[in-house]
Amino acid sequence: MGFKISWLGFSGKNKDEVLKALNLVDTGVHDEANESPVSVASIPNGWTIVWFDQFDHPFSEDKELRPLSMGCTLVAVQVHEGIMFSAAELYRDGARAWSASHDAQQGIYNLHTDGALPHAFEEIRARLTVEQDREGGKDAQVDCIFDIPVELAQSICGFRHDRFSFDWGEPIFTEAKEAVVK
């Protein structure tokens, strides 16, 4: 089955600013396994991660990401392990800087990129392409290319959805809910 999620990483806005921009409030309830529809964590490098337990969440659309990235850097990631689709984008001050996506339904080596990709991209792409070849190429039982957008996002913000422990420690997610407008 696997992950079917979206997550956003924000740098340049603190957790309270991120929650306000998304019209969310932090309940303070620990969400260890990210089972809530939305959860949030601040990690030691200054990034705030917002986890959506939904693939293709509306907040992952370009029309939402542009204004959310005003005054900050925003990494947006979508993952659907059931169909082996992954995508990562970086927005800065209202503009998309780059994007990378993989859709195994279009072929195991499918990779679409756009914009000024970070320096880490070439190393990540080369390493995972060689690994895919070593595993049997298009006939392999694994999809290494899927990890290219995921690793690219991690290279920027230090977080990835399928790890629960990092060199810097463990992210502590808490449930977030839509703010009630009074």
Concise account of the structure shown:
By secondary structure, the protein is of the alpha+beta class. It is built from 4 helices and 9 strands; from the N terminus they run βαβββαββββααβ. Helix 3 runs antiparallel to helix 4.
Provide structural commentary.
The chain is an alpha+beta fold and 182 residues long. Helices cover 23% and strands 32% of the residues. It is built from four helices and nine strands; from the N terminus they run E-H-E-E-E-H-E-E-E-E-H-H-E. The chain has helices at 15-21, 62-68, 120-135, 147-157, and strands spanning 4-11, 24-30, 38-42, 48-52, 73-80, 85-92, 95-103, 112-115, 174-178. Strands 2-9-3-4-1-5-6-7-8 form a nine-stranded antiparallel β-sheet, sandwiched between helices. Helix 3 (120-135) runs antiparallel to helix 4 (147-157). The longest helix is centred in the last third of the chain and has 16 residues, at 120-135. It is globular. The termini are far apart. The model has no long low-confidence stretch (mean pLDDT 96).
